[in-house]
Structure formats: C-alpha cells, structure tokens
Design a protein that fits this description.
Layout: H1 5-62, E1 66-71, E2 74-78, H2 80-86, H3 105-113, E3 115-116, H4 119-124, E4 128-133, E5 139-151, E6 154-163, H5 165-179, H6 189-206, E7 210-217, H7 220-227, H8 229-246, E8 252-257, E9 260-265, H9 273-286, E10 289-291, E11 294-296, E12 300-307, H10 314-330, E13 336-338, H11 341-363, E14 366-375, E15 381-392, E16 396-398, H12 400-409, H13 413-433, E17 441-444, H14 447-450, H15 455-465, E18 473-478, H16 479-484, H17 486-499, E19 502-508, H18 515-518, E20 525-528, H19 530-534, H20 540-555, E21 559-563, H21 568-576, E22 581-583, H22 593-601, H23 609-617, E23 619-623, H24 627-638, E24 643-647, H25 650-659, E25 662-668, E26 670-671, E27 674-675, H26 676-686, E28 691-696, H27 701-709, E29 715-718, H28 723-739
Helix pairs in contact: 7-8, 8-9, 13-15, 15-17, 20-28, 21-23
Bound molecules: ligand LFPHGCPZ.
Length: 740
C-alpha cells in the first residue's frame, strides 16, 4: 500500500516536534533541578552564616576581656565585659560616645602604641599596661591591645582590655612585703638603702646635705624578757609612731630589725637640724608609755652621720650612724652622738684586735698568770686565780681588760675560755707530777661559756683527761652571768656541784643580783669586788657593803673572799669583819707560772702579825650567870683573835670594865637580881664608847624597843644563838666601836 505523501511529511514533523519538546522539557527539568540546588545551597549558606555569627557573638559576649569597637572615634560596639569594666549601667550609656573619653590623657600615647593593623600582628606583641577611665571617673589598671578591623563595612578599631586590678594589688602587696617591716609597716633596710641612694644622687646634683640617724632602744631586751614578746611588739609599734611624729613626711623612718630604727632626714638640712631632731626624738621616747598595764620609761641611743661630710655611699653612712649610736650607748645611753673619724679609728683598732686574738689562739700566744688567795686565819695559800695575759709579739704583754671585752663581743671568748681551762688543768697536772703541794685553781668563766649546754661535759672531760680531782678546780662566775637565765644557770650549777667542782660569784655587789636566786646557787664563795675593798678604810658605804657581803655569805653558809687587798688597813678591817680569804697585791701580784710554782713549793704563807696586833686591842666582855655559857663563849671566840673577858656577875663585870679597854660588852638579859638592860643603861653613862649587845630569848619590841631607842642596846642576839650570827654581830660591834 502506498502511504500518502502528506501524511508522511506530517508525521515526520510531528516526530521532530515531539523530540524538541522532550529536549526542552529535559532541559527545563535540569535547570529547575540546578535552581533548586542553588536555592538549597543558598539557604544552607545563610544558615551557616547565621550560625557562625551567633557563635561569634556569643563568644564575644561571653569573653571575660572587655571588647569595644570604635569607628570615626565613637564607640559603636561593646561587650558586657567592657560594660562592666567601664562601670556602665547599659551599653547605651557608652555607645556613640567618644572612645578617647575612656582613656586618660596620660595613657593615650601608650594606647596608640598598642594598636596594630591586623590581629596577627597584635597577638604577636605583648599587651601594654595602662589605665582606662570608668564612667565614675575612677581608673582601672588593664592590659591592652587593639587592632584595625572592618565593622559594619566601615574602617574601625577593636580594643581589647583585661582588668588586672587584682593582680596589681597582689603585686603591690608582695612588693610592700618585700620592702616593709611587717610589724610596724615602716620601710625595711632594703627600701631605706634604696631611698638613701636616691637621696644621695639628688643631693649630689643639688649640692645638698642629708642626715642618717640610727636609733636603738636602751634595754629593750629586758622589756621583752620581763613583759613578754607581745609587749615588746607593742613598744616597737609605739616607737615607730613616735619617730614618725618627730620628722617631716618627706623624711624616711625605717626599721632595720629588732629595736633598731633609722631615719633619713632629707634636704633642706640646716646645721642644727639633726641635733634638734635627735633632741626631739629623745624627749618623745622618754615620755612614759603603758606596757603590760604599767608605766615604763623607754630611752634610746642615737648615732648620726652626715652626707657628704662623713661619706657618700648609703651603706657607709648607715654604718657610721651605727658606730656613732654605739658610742652614745657607751656614753651612758639616752643620748646622741655624731659620727667622727676618731670613732672609725677606734673601730678599726678593735677589728685589728679581734683579728689579733684569732691569730693569738692559732699561734699559742696566751699565757696564764696566777694570783694566790690566802686564808685570813691560817695565813696559808688556799687557792690561786688563773689570770689570762696575751703575750703579743707586736703589742707586748696585753692585760685582759684590753681584750676580754672584745673577745666576749666577738664570741671568741668561748675558744679562749677553753684554752684557759685546758692550760690551767695541764699546769695542775704538771705540778702534781712534780710533787708540788697544789691548791685549787680558780678560772674565770664568761657568760656565753656558761650558757653553753656542753659546759659541764667539757669540764668533766678536761678534768678526766688530766686525772684531776674536781675539787682542784673552781669557777668564778659573775652575777650577771647567772642572772641571764637563772633557772638554766641553777641547773648547770647543780650539775657542776655534783661533780665536786667549786664555784664562786666574782665581783659580788657590782651586778644586780636577785637575792632569792642567790640563795639557790650552790656556790661556795662570794668574792667581794675590789672596788669595795679599795674604799674600805675611807668610805663608810663601801665598808657597810663589805660587812654586809661577809655577813650574808656567812649566813648563807658560804665563804667570803675579798679581792684587790693592797694595804694593811684593808687587811685588818677585813679580818675584823670576819672575812675568810683575801687576794691582792698586799700578799702577791699575779705571778708567772714558775714564780707561782716556787711559792707553792716553798709553802709560803702570809704574816698574820698585823692582825694579831689589832686583835689584842679588841677586847670583848661577856656577862652571864652560867659558867657553861662563859666557857662555850671563850671557845667560840678563841680562834677569832679577840681578847676575851668573862664575868659571871655584875660586880665582876664592873671590875673588868674598869681595868680593861673593853670594846664590846655582851650580856645575858636574865642576870640574878638584875636585867641586862638595866646593866647596859648604867654602863652607857659610864663607858659611852662601849658597844652593848644583849643576849635574850624575848626579842619583842615591848622588851627591847625602849632600850634600843635610848641607845642602851646596840644589837641583840636571839637565844639560843647561832655561832655565825653571834660572830657577825661581834665583828660589826667592833667595827662600830672603832669607827666612833
Ligand atoms: N673571762 C675571763 N676573764 C678573765 C680571764 N683572766 C682575767 N679575766 C678578767 O679580766 C679582768 C682583769 O683581769 P686582770 O687584769 O688580770 O686583773 C686581775 C688582777 O690582776 C687584779 N688584781 C688583783 N689584785 C689586785 C690588787 O690588789 N689591786 C688591783 N688594782 N688589782 C688587782 O684584779 C683582777 C682580778 O679580777 P677578778 O677576776 O675579778 O678576780 C678581770 O675582770 C678578770 O676577771 C680569763 O681567763 N677569762
């Protein structure tokens, strides 16, 4: 079959049309799918952007650092931390305001330097420290950086600040602690020296003067020891306040430590200013203060050095003021002294002496001399004191007074004390081995030696090493030594006593002994200081002290030894007062080893003739009805060099008084038919120079008051009497008789 042509053409065209439409539809579908994808992507992108912005915004909002952005000089954004930093109640309070208002003028240049072109550059640099202003005008310490950014499509600056107030406060507190004294709040040594150094530089530039004052409280240690450390601290705080009141605000008052304060008096400094301020300080310190509920008067010693006259370096000015302060202390405290070159020379000499002492120990330049101690009843040598000398190749024989104080202050005394002990024991051993009749050696013990815990061990070891009887060693302790820590001293003394070592209190009466401690010291002797011995024949006070010390020694069961006895007069009075032993030039000066050895070997003693002559004139009369009492009395006094008369009735007593130069009359109160007091009233009229001593069991004022008041009875002795008490009264009776 033949198809029509038209229909064939039409169908072909239809096919083409269909195919074209199909293509178009496919394209459309594809485009629409692409459009859909684009849409989808755009939505996703938007969502991402939104999410990212929210994230960044949250981050910025939560940032602890303050962030604010300014554009064209005005704040356009700030996070809550910035709002807090500036103390704004809302962001609106600051948005739109001048950014520079937040930075005080003084810090603007610093701020400019802290702003960078990009974040990377800003973050690679250290933040700068500056201050920003809060809305109330107060300033806040911050660490800051800034960087250029685009914000809202405009060129802007982002500022980031971190509040460092707390850290600054902590740093300042730390700095304060490092430069100030915690107790008083005053500058410490480091800060003082720093200020002094700066002041010196300034004074040098302007040709000005400065003064450094060193103030040391007198006897602060005793306040601490007696009232406790809390009271000591109170005192130091008070003194700090008082010192500040004495100077201008521009001057510096500092505490170096302990009770040492220093002041820097800054320019303008008139010639009289330092002395005037020192006077002011002395007066202010001298006003009574209440400590531990009681009023106390505190004084201070002040040393002054002046720039530029005395030095140009801070350390040396301070040292010179210190030296001057020591001189003020030596001069009796509560005074002030200006530094002088002579002080420096003395100090240099002292340092040289100290070095010399070190060498002396190393080179074995010390020697001991020995001074004999003599018993006043037997005249025999009963002991010897070892006295140190320094045989210096450069200085010759140096006496201890020139170097012992330096040795004590420089702590060399312990090593020297050890040497003395060693040498004394070695000498005793050598003499014993040579068959010489030795006597105990007394060695001086310094306070610091005695506070050494190992002292008793050292003594025991040394004695054992030389195989010596501990009784051959005596320690001379000073009152002050045993008072430093009395309880510890007492313990140590008991330990030493238990070993058999003898002990005496040296220079007795010159310190400030507490007598209640004294009675607990297990010592054997009190050594009367030579200053009292010296005044014995001429000064009634010295004589009373010597008498009192001898009596006290005896009543405590101790022996009394007087040192520094030079004359026969001193010797006689000491014997009359019942002193047991003497030491002094009268019998012998301190001797070198060989001379002392010879003296012991010859058993040399002291001639007692001068004492015997005195005794013959000392006549005592005892009146008692009982023969037994009279004979006991004779026996007791026989050994003491008195001329003893006895009467067993009044008639006999009157006979004896008439025929003899009687110095002291001792009478029993209970006489047959009479009383001792009546007897004394009568002989007082007849023999007024006689000294009258009553023996009585009734010591009440009713019995004795009137007789004592009228001078009939000089002293009474309670019956039954103790021999020492009777002897002491007798000795003082004769002393009284001979005085008037
Ligand atoms: N810690 C130590 N101290 C010691 C030691 N050796 C001595 N000293 C102390 O030095 C002070 C002075 O001693 P010195 O110069 O030896 O004087 C003594 C005697 O020589 C002197 N003396 C003795 N008799 C007389 C005298 O009749 N007249 C007079 N003017 N002086 C005399 O007295 C000193 C004795 O002192 P003392 O010890 O108090 O008995 C002195 O304080 C010594 O203690 C030592 O080794 N260690």
């Amino acid at each position: 079959m033949i198809e029509p042509v038209v229909s064939t053409v039409a169908s072909r065209s239809l096919i083409r049309e269909r195919s074209a439409r199909k293509e178009a539809e496919t394209l459309l579908e594809q485009k629409s799918r692409e459009l859909y994808d684009i849409n989808l992507n755009l939505r996703q992108l938007n969502a991402h952007l939104e999410e990212s912005e929210t994230r960044y915004r949250t981050l910025v909002e939560l940032m602890p650092d303050a962030i604010w952005i300014h554009c064209d000089g005005r704040i356009v954004f700030m996070n809550p931390a910035a709002q807090r930093l500036f103390g704004a109640t809302s962001p609106e309070q600051l948005l739109g305001t001048e950014a520079l208002e937040r930075v005080p003028e003084a810090y603007r240049a610093q701020m400019e330097q802290g702003i960078f072109n990009d974040l990377a550059a800003a973050q690679s640099q250290p933040r700068c420290a500056l201050r920003v202003a809060r809305v109330d005008g107060s300033l806040v310490d911050v660490e800051f950086f800034g960087c250029a950014i685009r914000f809202n499509d405009a060129a802007s600056v982002m500022n980031v600040a971190h509040d460092i107030t707390e850290r600054r406060q902590h740093e300042m507190a730390m700095e304060h602690q490092a430069t100030h004294d915690l107790l008083t709040g005053l500058p410490n040594r480091a800060l003082f020296l720093d200020r002094l150094t700066h002041a010196i530089r300034r004074a040098e530039r302007h040709n000005e003067r400065l003064a450094v004052m060193f103030v040391d409280l007198d006897k602060f240690k005793s306040i601490n020891d007696t009232l406790g450390h809390a009271a000591g601290d109170d005192l130091l705080r008070m003194v700090a306040g008082h010192l500040k009141q004495c100077v201008r605000l521009s001057d510096t008052v500092a505490r170096l430590g302990g009770d040492e304060f220093v002041l820097l008096l800054d320019n303008p400094l008139g010639d009289t200013m330092p002395a005037m301020i020192a006077e002011r300080i002395s007066m202010r310190l001298g006003q009574p203060v209440i400590l531990g509920g009681q009023e106390h008067v505190i004084t201070g010693s002040i040393g002054i050095s002046i720039f530029p006259e005395d030095g140009t370096r801070a350390e040396s000015l301070l040292r010179q003021a210190d030296i001057a302060m020591y001189r003020a202390k030596e001069g009796g405290r509560n005074s002030f002294q200006f530094f002088t070159q002579e002080m420096q020379n003395r100090l240099d000499a002292r340092v040289a002496l100290e070095q010399g002492l070190h060498r002396a120990l190393q080179r074995d330049e010390f020697v001991l001399h020995y001074q004999p101690q003599v018993n006043l009843r037997s005249g025999r040598i009963v002991g010897m004191e070892a006295l140190l000398r320094w045989q210096s190749p450069e200085l010759g024989l140096v006496p201890p007074l020139q170097f012992i104080p330096v040795a004590e202050e420089s702590n060399l005394i312990n090593a020297i004390g050890k040497w003395v002990l060693e040498k004394a024991c070695a000498t005793l051993r050598a003499w014993l081995d040579a068959g010489v009749p030795v006597v105990p050696i007394a060695v001086n013990v310094a306070a610091s030696q005695f506070s050494d815990d190992d002292m008793d061990q050292l003594l025991r070891d040394t004695l054992a090493r030389y195989r010596l009887d501990p009784g051959l060693l005596e320690l001379e302790l000073t009152e002050s030594l045993s008072m430093e820590d009395p309880e510890a001293s007492i313990e140590l003394m008991h330990r030493l006593k238990a070993t058999g070592i003898g002990m005496s209190i040296d220079d007795f009466g010159t310190g400030y002994s507490n007598l209640s401690y004294l009675k607990r010291f297990p010592v054997d002797k009190l050594k009367i200081d030579q200053s009292f011995t010296r005044g014995l024949t001429s000064d009634p006070e010295d004589r009373s002290i010597v008498t009192a010390v001898i009596r006290m020694a005896h009543s405590l069961g101790l022996r009394a030894i007087a040192e520094g006895v030079e004359t026969e007069g001193q010797l006689r009075l000491l014997a009359a007062e019942g002193c047991d032993e003497i030491q002094g030039y009268y019998f012998s000066r301190p001797l070198p080893e060989q001379a002392m050895l010879a003296m012991l070997a010859r058993d040399m003693g002291m001639d007692l003739a001068p004492l015997t002559r005195t005794v013959q004139r000392r006549t005592v009369l005892l009146v008692d009805d009982e023969p037994q009492v009279l004979s006991t009395f004779r026996k007791l006094l026989g050994g003491h060099g008195y001329d003893v008369l006895t009467a067993h009735g009044l008639a006999e007593a009157y006979e004896l008084l008439a025929g003899n130069d009687v110095g002291v009359v001792i009478s029993d109160q209970e006489l047959v038919g009479h009383t001792g007091i009546d007897f004394f009233h009568r002989i007082k009229r007849m023999y007024p120079r006689t000294v009258r001593v009553l023996l009585t069991a009734d010591t009440t004022p009713a019995n004795l008051g009137d007789a004592i008041n009228k001078g009939a009875v000089f002293k009474f002795v309670e019956k039954p009497w103790r021999d020492e008490a009777l002897l002491a009264v007798l000795a003082s009776g004769f002393a009284h008789h001979e005085r008037f």
